[in-house]
Amino acid sequence: MRAAFAAAILFSAAPVLAQAGEPVSGPAAVALLGPALNISSRDRAVEFYTKGLGMVVQMEMGPANHRETMLGFTGLPGQPAIILLSDQTAKTAPAYTQGTAFNRLVMRVRDIDGVIARLHALGHKTSDVKNVAQGYRMATTSDPDGYKLELVEAAPRKETK
Predict the structure, then answer these.
(1) Maximum pairwise Cα distance, the chain
(2) Are 60 and 71 in contact (CB under 8 A)?
(3) Tens digits of residue pLDDT in 122-140
(4) Is the dihedral of CA 62, 149, 103, 153 positive or negative?
(5) What CATH number is associated with residue 141?
(6) Integer distance in angstroms from the first to the last C-alpha of the chain?
(7) What is the pLDDT of residues 92-116, one digit of tens each?
(8) Sign of the CA dihedral running 28, 148, 141, 59
(9) Which DSSP category does 126 fall into?
(10) Residue 161: inside a domain
(11) Smaller CB count within 10 Å for the chain: N or C?
């Protein structure tokens, strides 16, 4: 299944691949789809990302016991997503060793206080909201599998005249 998905991504990107030494140009020449996270419980992870963070399921593929679930904020294909990888074929959930290069997912939110309230209502812990540089506010949390997330609310835009 992963090979078919990777092949689909590669073949759909074929027109934008440049010859060696040629720059790839254009605003959509290369785009980040999103990180793929191994998860222990699809239902628990989907609840966290949809009810807690307001994401929507964009698509799912694969059999129920080996499901890939893509979540985004718009539901529109081509937008950044998080890919949840769930393998229920193992008798016990595998112990995942997170690499030393991964630190956290950073997500922009419009209403950090509302997101924090939803996460608390679902039983998730968060840090306190902190005022950081240039009017930004941020807090941290972890998803049900321990992946760290940084939630950032941008400073309100000043009207220009």
Answers:
(1) 63
(2) no
(3) 999 999 999 987 788 999 9
(4) positive
(5) 3.10.180.10
(6) 53
(7) 665 666 665 567 888 888 899 999 9
(8) positive
(9) B
(10) no
(11) C
Per-residue pLDDT at 30 exceeds 60 = no
Q: Encode pLDDT of 5-18 as tens digits.
A: 333 333 333 333 33
Which amino acid is located at 64 in the chain? A
Q: Which pair of tokens denotes residue 46?
A: 């989907």
SS3 91: coil
Distances (CA, A) of 148 to 91, 105, 140, 143: 26, 6, 7, 7
pLDDT digit string, tens, across residues 33-89: 788 888 888 999 999 999 999 999 998 988 888 888 999 988 777 788 898 988 888
Query: What is the pLDDT, as a whole number, of residue 144?
Result: 94
**6 in a structural domain:** no
Q: Let me know if residue 42 belongs to a domain.
A: yes
Token reading at 10: 């590669």
Instruction: Compute the distance between CA of residue 10 and CA of residue 7 in angstroms, rounded to an integer.
Output: 5
In the chain, the amino acid numbered 25 is S
Q: Which long-range contacts (CB under 8 A, 24 or more apart) does 113-118 make?
A: 115/52, 115/53, 115/54, 115/151, 116/151, 118/51, 118/52, 118/53, 118/54
Count of structural domains, the chain: 1
132 domain residue, yes or no: yes
